[in-house]
Amino acid sequence: MISNLIYSNDVDATLNAIVGGGNYNLVVVLVDENTRQLVLPRLPILNNTQIIEIQSGDENKNLTTLKSVWQQLENLGATRQSLLVNLGGGVVTDLGGMAAATFKRGIHFVNVPTTLLAAVDAAVGGKTGINFMGLKNEIGVFACAEDVIVSTCFFDTLPPEELKSGFAEMLKHGMLSTHEEFLQLLETDFDNIDFENLLKILQSSIQVKQRIVEEDPTEKGLRKTLNLGHTVGHAFEMKALDDSKPVSHGYAVAWGLVIETVLSHMIKGFPSADLYSLANFVRTNYGSFKITCDDYDYLIGIMRHDKKSYNGEINCTLLKACGEPLIDNTISDDDIKAALDIYRDLMGI
Amino acid sequence: MISNLIYSNDVDATLNAIVGGGNYNLVVVLVDENTRQLVLPRLPILNNTQIIEIQSGDENKNLTTLKSVWQQLENLGATRQSLLVNLGGGVVTDLGGMAAATFKRGIHFVNVPTTLLAAVDAAVGGKTGINFMGLKNEIGVFACAEDVIVSTCFFDTLPPEELKSGFAEMLKHGMLSTHEEFLQLLETDFDNIDFENLLKILQSSIQVKQRIVEEDPTEKGLRKTLNLGHTVGHAFEMKALDDSKPVSHGYAVAWGLVIETVLSHMIKGFPSADLYSLANFVRTNYGSFKITCDDYDYLIGIMRHDKKSYNGEINCTLLKACGEPLIDNTISDDDIKAALDIYRDLMGI
Q1: pLDDT confidence of residue B1
Q2: Hey, which bits of B27-162 come out as E strands?
Q3: Interface contact A23, partner B, CB < 8 A
Q4: Which of A159, B54, B152, B253 could covalently link to B168 via disulfide, CB atoms 3.0 to 4.6 Å apart?
Q5: Per residue in B170-225, pLDDT tens?
């Protein structure tokens, strides 16, 4: 269940080695309209390959799109000896990974994440899937890409918000790792990003995740720590989608991190100074997700339906401190409501 | 990738132990209209569980049915701590296995095969899936049931043809195992089946498969031997479906075994005496699948699209003799046509 991770900004040469060394009878590239236009032309090695294009956007990470990818793989004559290259953000790598893992019971696939979020999150760790009945990643399988090529060279094709979105997952990894890493990340200035340096920071961030996934590939225990920020984050994402004002996954995670850190402070004694630093960083760089107390019951309902919930109870990963995660905490409705109140205070809502 | 296999005709008590010992928050039983009516009432332990019913028949092993199972699991409030019990033949165990393996990226499932075919084939070995675009099991995953309860006590609910259908897979296992087992199976008299004894024979037959699957769970090599009879068999099944005269999987495998044994004789020197014994047994008990030379090109086309094919070439497992399988043989169109000619002779078509 482990992918081969390659950190390189020479993606064309890296892909060339993979495609050349794999003895594949067909290489198919999965793109969305953005990566087709902006990224594909930078990869001459993929000039003569077959292309499947899907529409960007989380709302297209669904069964209809998955079915169309299966159909196109079929029509292109893909076999078990074919390779699927997922070239895009998390929608492409999640849906493409699931398509590859289920087509003829599994063909090889390579992930080339083109967003920071996909690099740090979706492209590593073997989670694939689609949204279903309004629930995120509700249908999916655990399946690892043969190779994941991690680069920062395509991030210039993205709007600045995309970078912040991915950075939220790095923030989470920092909090799971050490107090030092956490403080270092808070010094980031999004107006002056050094993309050369970012590949190095990204590598150490991914290694935090990789260590956790290797110890617990199918999420029996330790891996649940990676859900930090996600129970509340997913609920915000779903609410935003329902209100037809979708927010990016990373922004939702940033806000979710604040609320779950509030809970960590309330329940596990997480240091208040670090909570305030985090809240300040998130408010400054991500703004805030506007909620009122009228939204609380709705949000709680979504949290109860989360994949991580058990017996309809809300389940969160909490932190005693940076680097000291605690899994499988059941959170009462009262505590969630109190944390949402504090979040609104901290964010000035 | 190994299921816990339990051989017992006291299915109710066995299920009771599994459900009681598993700490599941919800147990859902997947049935078809036949097992709901004929088998479910014999299992009082399942009296108070939730039921999902799908329509029997291979034509319903499709994405529409899979989607409806996902939806019903969702509506019943199934979580990662829920259990799906697949109570039925191969359609129920294949589709139910895939539903469970993909719902929330995988929940526990138990297979209770109610046909000989499902017991000997579909319920063991971790292959799940659905048909797609006219191709059998085209979409699926490798995923093992936690437990498989193998019994013969429900076979009295089946038409006699069902028993013969499952027996074809046992015949295949016999040919892969030893000459002695092969000859023993040919002595079977379908008019006088001892169901008590059948559970023992079934156990040794399943153990042949189990040994192979344990050595090669993801079909890199040895497991391909289990495809014996299936390259041609699947083509017959598809043709029958296209002609709106579906044949059961096992019958197609029986005919496929004859043709692939003809190929084994032609190419690898499989003993002619055993070929004639096999052909005689199949003709007597299964009749013959009527084809003319006008069908050859169509059948070859399907074989080229088989999951096992590489570069559009027809790939078969062949036998040097009983117990001596050889995988990854590329078969020429001329050899296939010659084998189909000989099959028609042997079957008196």
Answers
A1: 61
A2: 27-32, 50-54, 83-88, 108-113, 130-132, 135-139, 147-150
A3: no
A4: B253
A5: 999 999 999 999 998 998 888 888 887 889 889 989 999 888 888 887 667 888 99
> What is the rounded distance in angstroms from the CA atom of residue B186 to the CA atom of residue B283?
12
Alpha-carbon span A128 to A92, nearest angstrom:
10
CA A311 to mean position of chain CA atoms: 26
Q: Cβ separation of A138 and B312 shorter than 8 Å?
A: no
* Domain B4-157, second-level architecture: 3-Layer(aba) Sandwich (3.40)
CA distances from B82 to A131, B23, B28, B125, B222 (A): 20, 9, 8, 22, 34
Structure tokens given for B277: 């014994």
Asked whether A256 and A246 are in contact (CB, 8 A), the reply is: no
Contact A102 B77 (CB under 8 A): no
The answer to whether A132 faces chain B, any CB pair under 8 Å, is yes
pLDDT tens, position by position, A74-100: 999 999 999 999 999 999 999 999 999
What number is the average pLDDT over the span B148-168?
Answer: 92
Architecture field, domain A171-347? Up-down Bundle (1.20)
Work out whether the CA dihedral B215, B216, B222, B227 comes out positive or negative. Answer: positive
Task: Go through chain A and tell me how many residues it has.
Answer: 349
Average pLDDT, chain A: 93
Q: In the structure encoding, which two tokens stand for residue A271, read together?
A: 């240091």
Give the one of A104, A133, A311 whose C-beta lies nearest to B307's C-beta: A104
| Residue B229: partners with Cβ closer than 8 Å, 6 or more residues away | B168, B172, B253, B254, B256, B257, B260
Cα A85 from Cα A112, distance rounded (Å): 7
Express each pLDDT in B89-133 by its tens digit. 999 999 999 999 999 999 999 999 999 989 987 667 788 999 999
For CATH 1.20.1090.10, the residue range(s) in chain A are 171-347
Q: What is the per-residue pLDDT for A1?
A: 61
CATH number of B160-185+216-347: 1.20.1090.10
* A279 contacts A258 by C-beta, under 8 angstroms: yes
pLDDT range class, residue B309, cuts 50, 70, 90: confident
Q: How far apart are CA A148 and CA A129, in angstroms?
A: 17
Q: Which of A66, A75, A139, A304 to mutate to test the interface with B (most CBs of B within 10 A)?
A: A139
Q: How far apart are CA A314 and CA A228, in angstroms?
A: 13
How many C-beta neighbours within 10 Å does residue A55 have?
Answer: 13
Where, residue-wise, is CATH 1.20.1090.10 in chain B? Answer: 160-185+216-347
Domain with CATH 3.40.50.1970 in chain B: 4-157
Using a CB-CB cut-off of 8 Å, the residues of chain B touching A64 are none
Q: Rounded to whole angstroms, how far apart are CA atoms A201 and B314?
A: 49
